[in-house]
Amino acid sequence: MSTKDCCSSCKTEVKEENNNNCPICNNGGRSVAKETIVHLVKDGYSNLLHSEEYMICMKEDCEAVYYSLNKDEVYLQHQVKVPIWFKVDANPKYACYCSEVTEKQVINAIKEQGAKTVKEINAITGAMKDSNCIKNNPLGTCCHGIIQEIIDKTLV
Ligand SMILES: [Zn+2]
Q1: How many A from CA of 116 to the centre of ligand 1?
Q2: Which of 10, 81, 82, 122 is the most buried (most CB within 10 A)?
Q3: How far is CA 139 from CA 11, 77, 79, 136, in A?
Q4: For residue 102, how far is its CA from the centre of ligand 1 (angstroms)?
Q5: Is 96 helix (H, G, I), strand (E, B) or coil?
Q6: Distance from Cα 84 to the centre of ligand 1, integer Å
Q7: Ligand 1 centre and the CA of 17: distance in Å?
Q8: How far is the CA of 24 from the centre of ligand 1 (A)?
Q9: In the chain, which residues have pLDDT < 70?
Q10: What is the pLDDT of residue 106?
């Protein structure tokens, strides 16, 4: 490390402050709309949300779910209303949060009823009816992609 020899005014070390990684596990996160987080943290936490920009930790075995970009706030799995499907302890693993359809139901629809497309899955399981993903899905994104992933995974 030769940073000690660096002139004190060049600010090359400021870099660290710009990283968006999880403050608990230091792995990468994804940006999530505040509206989603307000809806999904348990009662009593939503009024603690003081930042404007939030991220979700994507690491499967990290307890942290949401954190503010400035790292002042961290919300752990037990402070969030729904299990985060990609975390190791998620139970049940929801594929579609709006209609509360689980990964297991999707896999059954594929294996036992021969569904091959998201449309067929939806017809069998009732997934993606009355969608309000911005409020119900922990990533604030449509569950279409999650269901497609399960199809791809199950049909190989
Ligand atoms: Zn983490």
Answers
A1: 34
A2: 122
A3: 34, 14, 16, 9
A4: 24
A5: strand
A6: 12
A7: 17
A8: 5
A9: 1-18
A10: 97
Locus of tokens 């119900």: 136
Q: Ligand 1 mean position to 67 CA, how many Å?
A: 9
The first and second tokens of residue 74, run together, are 């961290």
Question: Angle of helix 118-125 relative to helix 144-155, nearest 10 degrees?
Answer: 100
The CATH number assigned to the domain with range 94-154 reads 1.10.10.1100
Of 45, 67, 72, the closest CA to residue 54 belongs to 67
Structure tokens, 32: 């999530």
> Structural domain boundaries of the chain?
2-79, 94-154
| Domain boundaries 2-79, CATH class | mainly beta
Nearest to 89 by CA among 71, 119, 62, 68: 62
Q: Which residues pair with 67 in a beta bridge?
A: 55, 74
The whole-number pLDDT of residue 31 equals: 94
Contacts of 81 (CB under 8 A, 6+ apart): 40, 41, 42
Question: According to the model, what pLDDT value does residue 60 have?
Answer: 96
Ligand 1: distance of its center to the CA of 72 in Å?
A: 14
- Amino acid identity of residue 48, one-letter, is L
The rounded distance, in Å, linking the Cα atoms of 8 and 85 is 46
